[in-house]
Specification:
Elements: H1 26-34, H2 49-52, E1 55-57, E2 68-73, E3 85-92, E4 99-105, E5 119-123, E6 131-139, E7 145-152, E8 176-183, E9 212-219, E10 234-241, H3 265-273, E11 276-284, E12 290-292, E13 300-302, E14 307-311, E15 330-332, E16 337-342, E17 348-352, H4 371-379, H5 404-407, E18 435-438, E19 448-450, E20 462-463, E21 473-477, E22 481-483, E23 485-490, H6 504-512, E24 515-522, E25 527-532, H7 552-557, H8 559-566, E26 571-572, E27 574-579, E28 586-590, E29 609-612, E30 630-633, E31 638-644, E32 653-661, E33 686-691, E34 705-709, E35 721-725, E36 734-743, E37 749-758, E38 766-771, E39 777-783, E40 789-795, E41 830-836
Parallel strand pairs: 14-19
Antiparallel strand pairs: 1-2, 2-3, 3-5, 4-6, 6-7, 8-41, 9-10, 10-11, 11-12, 11-13, 14-15, 16-17, 17-18, 18-19, 20-21, 21-23, 22-26, 23-24, 24-25, 25-32, 27-28, 28-31, 29-30, 31-32, 33-34, 34-35, 35-38, 36-37, 39-40, 40-41
């Protein structure tokens, strides 16, 4: 080659550009043809991006001596789909110069934290179909660049199913991390000492309560106390404390528990205060670690002794007047809070479930009540004589002291007290069974009982989609055998401006104190009707011979009786409700029903069978099947779903089917395991239910459905669990004619047939994501708006221990190891955080 002699020689060696056309450069062609490649997708190839190695992507600049190597990877599963973390890594030919990444086309993304000069990450956006995105890496020291293409597929489950197990730890898929965040007894202010966990601790009004349950995350502004629904790094967790494991709260278990004994005041106060709600501030550090702020001014406990307001149609009614509130406008506390809900104006809805059992009623009380009130008490499980679950009414206050903290649990009419209930607590029981609204951002605000939503064993109040100009709705289950599913439709149409209202509880007054409560009737043809519980309509009148209603407040106080009279469909214990954010379809868990028999199945609850606990490998094909150690009825539960007519919350008709039937994988697929579950997704007793938020890829296009279990029928095989699915639409399946068979304890074999509606459920569309520790329930779930952190509650681990000093679980102290020490430490209900190690959206 000729020497380069420089400009004085007039010899240019081709350095002069005299082609003024727009024809492409060879370098451009090379960059477009050879530097563009798609990421690998799971299921297409077993070869990973790492195995292929980086591709040489060179572009020619003016000096011709620079280049770029780019490598595109899409997370641990070598697949790029919505919600997964994508890493772009660019290098320069000399390995020294730095570069910059820019996006050329496709759905816009933001490069995440922790980027270096030549490497960036982003979360693949939500897409409905395969979508290409082009990125350019350009060296800062020259004009050399190279492009690469990332193709994103729709969201899909991105983990290997967790195996069933009986370990004493929380098991999650490979690539995920569990962090214990907030445990029974953890202090919520700086003055309260750490929890000793030996039964000596006191002051539970300033500690985490027991039996963590339903839960919601509310984003906080980066500084101050204002709501910021988009913040995923700082927020408030509002969570329920449904019940207690009594024996672990005291050094050697409770005392004064037998008839004729007196309960110690200190023990009773501890147990009472361990119920209710927690509201705590939580935050995510720059390294991704979560913690709660013990000293936050926003931290709060709401207990069964916290003042409340009665709001809506029942406010001031004669049946809610007590010695504490003679005008029936106020009360104290909330109890047995199970599932939950929320409002778009940033308040928390908590549900009072099995409240009736806490109250004492002496035999003498029946004669002092009207037949109508006796019928009302009986319909809600409060009829007849009972001591109350924890005998709190048997605390003996000091001489001359009237301590209504304990007297309120005795609903027996007191001799000489006014017949209107204003001088005793005969009406206290009617102040429970409601949905309660609390403002998590105002620690001094008074929670309000929203009586327009009816009185029952509430399992949450989950909202439908909010559409401007449309009346919003909340969906609710009544958790007891053969009870009903309800919907409350507000009288007010939704205005988006109310989402940022400063007075959040006043906004609740607007939407939650007036409206129409409906109960569901499921018809055999796959359609259904919402029946209005409105005074003066149908049988809900003063002339009704079964139960004479005086007004709308009377209908709401006796919601169950009103639903009976309307002919609602009796269901297999309706529990949590959840609404698909993309379609508006409502899902409800029907956890189980031991009283279901072949003679009383219905279209929406078509199974009655014998679930036999057999040695591994045996089957249930014996005729008749073995009846020993068996659960009868619908032992494993199912999940029903409905689609509103016109896809609007205001609809009064719907279509429905069953999303999934719980069953062991080995059960009869023709008559019991109707969804064809296998070892990766078989489950029993669905309870908690939640869809991923529509603020991230997990809740868009085909949202993720999380299913949690509270099981007694399958615990010989596995601890309770959480599954993750991507459901289709109502009506996507088929029908099946099934034969039901139940063997009674006396050897009688009951048989019958039914037609079941079965939704389409491909095996890999539902997968086990988590298995909990021993003797627990998995319940309560929410996430940060970005979906990168999931909060889950683990309730009552080790609940079966007879001796508190010989626990059957040590969780969460042994999280990660599962090692069981029979002498302690004692187990504790707790909230955990689950994160994906690559920083992506959990589950995808």
């Amino acid at each position: 080659m000729a020497d380069h002699l420089g400009p004085s020689s007039m010899y240019d060696d081709g350095d002069n550009d005299v082609n003024a056309t727009a024809n492409p450069h060879l370098g451009d062609i090379v960059a477009r043809r050879y530097s563009r490649r798609q990421t690998l997708f799971g299921g297409m190839s077993a070869i990973s991006a790492a195995a292929i190695g980086p591709m040489l992507l060179a572009g020619c600049g003016d000096d011709g001596d620079d280049g770029a190597n780019l490598s595109v990877t899409a997370g641990q599963n070598a697949a790029t789909a919505s919600g997964r973390t994508v890493m772009l890594t660019g290098t320069t030919s000399d390995g020294v110069a730095t570069g910059v990444w820019t996006q050329l086309d496709g759905p816009p993304v933001s490069f995440g934290p922790g980027a270096t000069a030549n490497a960036v990450t982003f979360t693949a956006p939500s897409v409905a179909a395969a979508t290409s995105m082009t990125f350019r890496f350009a060296a800062l020291s020259s004009s050399v660049f190279a492009d690469t293409t990332v193709t994103v597929q729709p969201a899909q489950l991105g983990f290997t199913a967790v195996a069933k197990n009986l370990n004493d730890t929380v098991t999650v898929p490979e690539g995920y991390t569990v962090t214990v965040l907030y445990r029974l007894g953890d202090p919520i202010n700086a003055a309260t000492p750490a929890y000793a966990n030996n039964g000596t601790d006191t002051d539970f009004a300033a500690r985490a309560g027991d039996h963590h349950d339903g839960m919601s995350f509310f984003g906080l502004a980066a500084t101050g106390n204002a709501p910021d629904p988009s913040n995923s790094s700082r927020g408030l967790l509002a969570l329920n404390h449904e019940n207690i494991t009594q024996r672990y709260l005291h050094p050697n278990g409770p005392t004064g528990t037998r008839a004729g004994e007196v309960r110690p005041e200190a023990e009773a106060i501890k147990e009472i205060e361990a119920h209710g709600l927690s509201i705590i501030e939580v935050s995510r550090a720059a390294n991704g670690t979560w913690s709660y702020n013990q000293a936050s001014a926003l931290n709060r406990r709401i207990t069964p002794l916290t003042p409340t307001q009665i709001s809506g149609p029942v406010r001031g009614n004669a049946l809610v007047r007590t010695a504490f509130s003679p005008d029936g406008t106020a009360g104290r506390g909330t109890i047995n809070n199970c599932a939950n809900g929320y409002t778009p104006w940033n308040t928390y809805l908590t549900a009072e479930e099995n409240w009736a059992g806490y109250f004492r009623r002496d035999a003498s009380d029946t004669a002092l009540r009207s037949s109508k009130v006796n019928a009302l008490l009986a319909r809600y499980g409060g009829g007849g004589e009972r001591p109350g679950s924890y005998r709190w009414a048997f605390v003996q206050p000091a001489a001359g002291v009237s301590d209504t903290r304990f007297a309120k649990w005795n609903i027996t009419s007191q001799p000489g007290a006014a017949a209107d209930g204003t001088q005793d607590f005969r009406n206290e029981v009617f102040q429970y069974g409601w949905i309660v609204e609390a403002d998590p951002f105002s620690p001094t605000s008074t929670p309000r009982k929203r009586t327009a939503l009816g009185r029952m064993n509430h399992e949450g109040a989950w909202p439908g989609r909010f559409v401007a100009g449309v009346r919003p709705a909340w969906y609710m289950g009544d958790d007891a055998q053969n009870e009903y599913i309800y919907k409350f439709v507000s009288a007010a149409t939704w205005s988006a401006a109310d989402a940022t209202a400063a007075d959040r509880l006043a906004t609740g007054d607007k939407y939650l104190d007036s409206g129409t409560l409906y109960v569901a009737r499921f018809d055999a043809d796959g359609t259904g009707v919402w029946l209005p519980l409105v005074f003066g309509q149908g049988p809900l009148t003063a002339a009704n011979a079964t139960y004479a209603f005086d007004n709308q407040a009377d209908v709401l106080l006796a919601t169950r009786i009103a639903a009976d009279l309307l002919g609602a469909t009796r269901m297999d214990r309706p529990e949590w409700t959840a609404v698909n954010p993309a379609t508006g379809e409502m899902y409800c868990t029907l956890t189980n029903n031991s009283s279901r028999r072949p003679a009383n199945v219905n279209a929406a609850n078509p199974r009655a069978y014998l679930d036999v606990k057999l040695p591994q490998g045996d089957t249930v094909n014996a005729d008749p099947p073995t009846a020993s150690q068996a659960t009868r009825g619908n032992a494993n539960g199912h999940i029903v779903r409905l689609r509103e007519q016109g896809d609007t919350t205001e609809a009064t008709r719907f279509t429905w089917d069953v999303y999934a039937y719980g069953a062991g994988a080995d059960l009869d697929r023709r008559n019991v395991n109707l969804s064809g579950l296998d070892a990766t997704n078989d489950f029993s007793s669905p309870d908690g239910l939640w869809f991923s938020r529509p603020t991230n890829a997990g809740g868009l296009v085909n949202p993720l459905l999380w299913v949690q279990t509270d099981d007694g029928a399958y615990t010989d095989v596995t601890n309770c669990m959480m599954l993750l699915g991507q459901p289709g639409r109502v009506g996507d399946g088929t029908t099946a004619d099934i034969t039901n068979r139940v063997v009674e304890t006396n050897g009688t074999v009951l048989t019958g047939t039914a037609t079941a509606r079965v939704g389409a459920l491909p095996g890999q569309a539902l997968r086990r994501f988590l298995v909990g520790p021993k003797e627990c329930e998995i319940t309560g779930i929410d996430s940060t708006p970005d979906g990168r952190s999931i909060f889950v509650n683990i309730q009552h681990p080790g609940e079966d221990a007879a001796d508190p000093n010989r626990p059957t679980s040590n969780w969460p102290a042994n999280q990660g190891t599962g090692t069981l020490n029979p002498t302690g430490p004692r187990p504790r209900s707790a909230t955990i955080v689950i994160t994906k190690n690559d920083g992506g959206v959990v589950g995808l």
